[in-house]
Design brief:
alpha+beta; 2 domains; 2 helices; 32% strand
Length: 178
């Protein structure tokens, strides 16, 4: 388990290749970056880290949380999110001073998750994504959104020890089928 706060969820179904989780709603800071899979991370991280480390309406330093999610949107843009600590509400959370950072409420919902270790490269993500999507299709589970990679460790963590996941929202009635 991580020493960092993360969104709360309940495992609804556990399979060898994936889990289905019911996530509680949570707040996130997000930014959209144009570019390719590998080049957008540094830009996104700098924006989001600046926000939580004091570049906000209250000059407040907030704690790191996990995971950091990266969702390729298929149009050359990439959505990155930092989870906000549960102690904040929409009213108490400082506002970003950088217009490229937005606060969003991620609604509660069902997600399929496939964990993997190693690098966060696009090739590795795409292979894990393909395996998850195939397993869900075999189980008759309907995807309702675009898969994202969830990263739980910083770059100083050796790749074999890094925890990553592919997360994808699914239709609620599909959990029983899985």
């Amino acid at each position: 388990m991580s020493r960092y706060e993360q969104p709360r969820y309940t495992v609804v179904v556990s399979r060898p290749d994936y889990e289905i989780r019911l996530y509680e709603s949570y707040l996130a800071a997000e930014t959209i970056v144009d570019g390719d899979f590998g080049s957008t991370g540094n830009v996104a991280f700098r924006r989001l880290a600046a926000f939580i480390f004091g570049r906000n309406s209250h000059s407040l330093r907030m704690n790191m949380t996990v995971p950091v999610t990266h969702q390729p949107n298929g149009d050359g843009t990439h959505r990155y999110r930092f989870v906000m600590e549960r102690t904040y509400s929409e009213l108490s959370l400082p506002r970003p001073v950088d217009d490229s950072v937005k606060i969003t409420r991620v609604p509660a919902g069902l997600y399929a998750a496939r964990s993997y270790r190693g690098s966060r490269s696009e090739g590795r993500f795409r292979r894990q994504e393909a395996e998850l999507v195939a397993a869900l299709a075999d189980a008759g589970v309907e995807l309702t959104g675009t898969p994202a990679v969830a990263v739980y460790n910083g770059p100083a963590t050796p790749p074999p020890l890094r925890r990553n996941e592919v997360l994808v929202p699914i239709a609620s009635h599909e959990a029983q089928a899985a």
